[in-house]
Amino acid sequence: MLMFIIRRLVQTVPVIIGVTFVVFFIMQLVPGDPAVLLAGEGASKDTIEAIREQLGLNRPLYVQYFDYLMNLANGDFGVSLKNSQPVLDEILVRLPITLELALFSILITIVLGMGAGIISAVKPYSMQDVGVMLVALIGISLPSFWFGLMLMYFFSVKLQILPVAGWDSLLHVILPALTLGAGGAAIVARMTRSSMLDVIRQDYIRTARAKGLRERLIIYKHALRNALIPVITVVGLQFGALLGGTVLVESIFAINGLGRMIVDAIRMRDLPMVQGGVLFASLIFVIVNLFVDVFYRFFNKRIELN
Amino acid sequence: MEKVIDKKVLLKVDQLKQYFPVKTESIFKPKAFVKAVDDVSFELFEGETLSIVGESGCGKSTTGRAILRLDEPTDGKVYYSGQNILELNKKEMRKLRGDLQVIFQDPFASLNPRQTVKQILNEAMAIQNVVEKPKRMDRMLELLGYVGLPPEALDRYPHEFSGGQRQRIGIARALAVDPKLIICDEAVSALDVSIQAQILNLLKKLQKQFQLTFLFISHDLSVVRHISDRVMVMYLGKVVEIAEKKDLFDSPLHPYTKALLSSIPVPNPTLKRERVMLTGDVPSPIDPPTGCRFHTRCPFAVENCKQVEPALREIRNNHFVSCHRAEELAQ
Amino acid sequence: MNEKNKPILEVKGLKTYFTTKRGVSKAVDGIDFTLHKGETLGIVGESGCGKSITSLSILRLIPSPPGKIAGGSILFKGNDLVTMSENEMRKVRGNEISMIFQEPMTSLNPVIPVGEQIAEALRLHQKMGRREAWAKSVEMLKLVGIPSPEKRAKQEPFQLSGGMRQRVMIAMALACTPEVLIADEPTTALDVTIQAQILALIKDLQTKIGMGVIMITHDLGVVAETCDKVAVMYAGNIVEHATTEQIFANPKHPYTQGLLASLPKIYEDQEELRTIEGSVPSSYNMPAGCRFASRCPYQEAICTAQQPELVEQSDGSKVRCWKYTEQWTGQVEQEEVV
Fold it and tell me: Which chain A residues are closer than 8 Å to B26 by Cβ?
């Protein structure tokens, strides 16, 4: 197991280098010249050239990339073009906020999704199953920006029980997390249901029945643990989608997180900020996937042998 | 086996080895192999039925697949009418496949569900181009007649047939290209006894009719007894005994063969036999026991068996066994 | 003495039907048998004859829908399992009547240590504490001949071989010392040398515990070696019910005769095997007369007209065949089976 984790960690290194490569070069393709933007409208050619010189933007790309890598290795993510703050500091301020949002969202995805899936699977084709699956279908189909606005309108404007936007208390987390987690929850619910239905047909469930166990114990002890194995993978994938979603949700609810930071930086052509933000988001994704793999392996030790 | 002068060798397997690599946990550990078939040699005579028997994991099916190059063997030679078929290139091998056919355990899995019987048979003939196009229809009806299916079967799909009938389709397909050798890999194992009897009778009939040679792979010793001329017993990738059928069943020499034979439940409650009960499970083929591979379960094992691997030797006429103590145990 | 002769399990007119889009499949259609303490009853037949459905019906483990016990009774120590509440039924399952299945590879939960899978039944039925149940399950593993049982108990099924998994299944089934053990093709998936071990183990434990065993199998060899009496099933019916000696020495029903004749013999040479021509009728559309009539070499007019009853013969065996009744004319008597 330890060997596996180490091997898996080693494998992430080329992935991360690949990410830096992609992040760096995609940024070069983005239209718009940061030097021009920084110099402001109507600046003379010389001024722009001077800024370029100052930022090192006039050197060959591969030199810039290598430089970038070396700086990264030293923990230097560059300086924001906009406010001259170190990118890393800017990110570290916002990272906890986004992580908190992501964590609550994934919690909602898991709890709501699995719960609904189990309720559906226990009595397949019953009213409760059809109802839950209908809601799940709607959940998958709804665009999150619309869903977020609807939640905001209903709970904050109409009922006035939850704050509209911002990020001060735990109450502020509820609506954005729900917006972000709902789509994933719907997918997880459908996956849990089909996985449960598959497991319930297995021979070992019949064995459990033949033992005289109660139906509840059969479901929660014998069926669920096996059914969750494929669901874990789906949850892991959902986490990726969720990171992408933070960009939108943070904008809607005016949360000063990593997602919004990237959006703002893109708008400002603040290259180092965008690079740093995307890099961090990628890092989180890689780490989460690592966890999912280890988790999956823990749950399903048979993989080792087969 | 020079003594059998009147018999012509059709297939000669020489020191065949089939190792499959297994994933190891650590990159530092040496690569491990499942030695599924480990140094197996035997000859197959024209027109005979040689059976390979043994329990799961003994390498009997792997041997069959290696001969057909369905899995490329690790080492060894397989001579078919004098030429080593493991050295043939793809084109030559494809040509040879017309001579070497195979029937699998699960006919359903080996028949394309979207093809009618007509398409299945047509395709088989087209690949080898054994029958000219205009004559194919007649040939198909002839084939169905051989395997006991009605002409209407041509336009039906595999799922419309029962297990026994599907196996007949599989046989017809194998026959379509005029083969010399058919490898039957657990061909009747999935069938109910009454159906199994029909297929066994059919195979025997066809063998006579077309002078076919069978390599019959099975775990069922009663079936093997019925269909074979000679029997080869395998254990953990090794041949432990080869003999004429009657010889093997009446006076087995290897302790494993004895145990295997005495383990079969016999449908005769009045027959009381002495049973050689083996203890424990078959060891892993990844790290097989040293010396004689059977020594861990053998009731007669001595120190020598743990150290020295026994060679396959001829103890009686045409009766080969790989056991150090074969002579003394035979008495 | 009287008490001893009373059967522990009495199945009367059991019918299990499956309702699907194609109609009603009469998988088990009115079968009767009894089982006494310490006795082994074999239920033998080819695939689709209803033998496995019978065994699942006894424990009411038929997947429902589409399956349903449509009639008859299953008296266990005088109580009818068919009409019992689900709650009461659960107290019978795994406690008084246990079952082992064909596929040891898939019948154990892959993510739960085998010791726990045995222990949970003990906690449930015997009201044992955690520690006590675990100790007992280790003891059971030892009893079924698993080496280093303490270590094995903590392992998950994938770490065990097929033979060992079937031993675990047996340990699980016998943990609560049941009065009846239903073994549904317990050795079909195993190699012959392992099969011999498992059958010997079941026999050995049967004498220790004194339970009745129902052995469901397609293998007449297994029947000959393990059973005291045999019920031969064909197309949802029992066609012959007799002692093991009677079945093999003097099979009466043409189907039983055909079945025995189609077996390749291990101790003699035959040029050709006898076969049973034709095929089993569809369970959705059973013929009105004898279900074997279309394949029977002795068929007379009455055979296709009316279904025969399972009738007791002078030697105590029971046969469902017109040949053994007064209605039989014997006019088209064919050559006797060799």
Answer: 3
